[in-house]
Amino acid sequence: xxxxxxxxxLELFPGxxxxxxxxxxxxxxxxxxxxxxxxxxxxxxxxxxxxxxPGHVGxxxxxxxxxxxxxxxxxxxxxxxxxxxxxxxxxLVLCQDTASCASHAEPERLREILLRGILT
Length: 120
Ligand SMILES: [Zn+2]
What we know:
Distance between the termini: 28 Å
Order of helices and strands: HEEEEEEEHH
Bound molecules: zinc ion
Number of helices: 3
Strand order of the largest sheet: 1-2-3-6-7
Low-confidence stretches: none
Largest sheet: 5 strands, antiparallel
Structural class: alpha+beta
Radius of gyration: 15 Å
Protein name: FBP C-terminal treble-clef zinc-finger
Oligomer: single chain
Strand content: 25-35%
């Protein structure tokens, strides 16, 4: 359903900004290299890859994806380029356990993080 709506809108209004499209299926997982991937199924398929930084967070904080308060050892720092520019990096605190985080995170929130990384 979402897929068809997105397709239709893009057909009628090519170049519509992704944040105005109906929410597509959101994927949020760790890949084999340990990077975190947030993707929204298309068209157009949107994808953001976050690099995990070594170590834990110093004290209890809120995960920016699932918004749970967790101890520092359950959280880590991640970063991604903003607007595709490797010189402009954004840092996020996220759960180390991406699968658990994914089961608690709202798809709308994940899309927000995704779009902030890819839109200029
Ligand atoms: Zn989380």
